[in-house]
């Protein structure tokens, strides 16, 4: 890998975006490397949750503007240049974005693609594409509107202004705000907690919440009920409940 650093910490897989000269601009190579690594983690029984982070200065400052500047419509269309990012939707294990510094354009969109965001006090979020004569391209207009509602999403997408972490937290974009030096530890602890649970149930829970953004309440409830019933086909359900009754800690086998 040339654009990211990959680590395994017990049952947590960690991806650090690493293009410091361009504030982790999301090049095509970086997209491929992130997605390939996520797929590897997703297929690995020894990994139960994933953290994506950047540097202290930038989670990611957007798509790589230099790489994009001279592309034509035909190149974008025929090569479907952002298609790798769509593959994130197929990752069944939880992904936490640990965001410090700039999360702009595609960087904000990548954070939004993750399952939740833990951010440091200096994090900044925005969709400044409009200033470049374009608009969000990997789901920002959709996921941002889902996360913060129409009015603030329109404000950010149409004016290109950046919001600080407190506005982002108040709007529901960010789950937790922590001091910068605690960011990684907090994200890893959350990921370790998740990775310690019954893995099929964790993945079902992620699937169930995601369905809420894609279908009607009736369909979503039906989907949740089927997943709930399916959880009773897992060893982890038996272990979790019998451990509770026996007043001992559960030991999940993650399968
Ligand atoms: C390529 C980038 C970059 C980017 C920063 N750099 N952002 N290179 N693509 N998105 C480079 C700069 O050119 C500079 O390189 C170095 O990183 C440091 O950036 P500075 O501008 O010198 O830093 P600073 O003054 O602190 O300003 C930080 C910043 C600014 C506010 C984040 O860099 C900025 O506005 N960046 C662009 C943000 C943006 O518009 N993002 C949306 C991109 S479009 P040198 O060589 O000069 O040191 C997009 C579309 C989404 O994301 C589609 C889906 C992927």
From TrEMBL:
- Supply the PROSITE patterns for this chain: ENOYL_COA_HYDRATASE (PS00166)
The membrane spanning regions, by residue number, are none
Entry EC number(s): 4.2.1.17
Keyword vocabulary terms for this entry: Fatty acid metabolism, Isomerase, Lipid metabolism, Lyase
Q: Which GO terms describe its biological process?
A: fatty acid beta-oxidation
Database matches in SUPFAM superfamilies:
ClpP/crotonase (SSF52096)
Catalysed reaction(s) here are: a 4-saturated-(3S)-3-hydroxyacyl-CoA = a (3E)-enoyl-CoA + H2O; a (3S)-3-hydroxyacyl-CoA = a (2E)-enoyl-CoA + H2O
Superkingdom per UniProt: Bacteria
An annotated Gene Ontology molecular function: enoyl-CoA hydratase activity
Function of this protein? Could possibly oxidize fatty acids using specific components.
| Entry's family note | Belongs to the enoyl-CoA hydratase/isomerase family.
What name does UniProt use for this protein? enoyl-CoA hydratase
- The organism is Colwellia psychrerythraea (strain 34H / ATCC BAA-681)
């Amino acid at each position: 890998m040339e654009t990211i650093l990959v680590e395994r910490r017990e049952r947590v897989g960690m991806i650090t975006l690493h293009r410091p000269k361009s504030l982790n601009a999301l090049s095509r190579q970086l997209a491929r490397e992130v997605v390939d690594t996520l797929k590897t983690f997703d297929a690995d029984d020894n990994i139960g949750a994933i953290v994506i982070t950047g540097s202290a200065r930038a989670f990611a400052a957007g798509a790589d503007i230099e790489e994009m500047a001279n592309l034509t419509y035909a190149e974008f269309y025929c090569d479907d240049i952002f298609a790798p990012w769509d593959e994130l939707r197929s990752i069944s294990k939880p992904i936490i974005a640990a965001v410090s510094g700039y999360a702009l354009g595609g960087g904000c969109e990548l954070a939004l693609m993750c399952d939740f965001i833990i951010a440091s006090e200096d994090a900044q979020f925005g969709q400044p594409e409009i200033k470049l004569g374009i608009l969000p391209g990997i789901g920002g207009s959709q996921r941002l509107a889902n996360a913060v509602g129409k009015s603030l999403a329109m404000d950010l997408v149409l004016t290109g202004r950046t919001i600080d972490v407190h506005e982002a937290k108040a709007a529901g974009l960010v789950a937790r705000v922590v001091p910068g030096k605690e960011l990684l530890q907090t994200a890893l602890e959350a990921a370790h907690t998740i990775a310690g649970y019954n893995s099929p149930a964790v993945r079902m829970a992620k699937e169930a919440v995601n369905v809420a953004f894609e279908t009607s309440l009736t369909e979503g409830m039906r989907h949740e009920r089927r997943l709930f019933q399916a959880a009773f086909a897992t060893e982890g359900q038996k272990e979790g409940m019998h451990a509770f009754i026996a007043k001992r800690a559960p030991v999940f086998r993650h399968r």
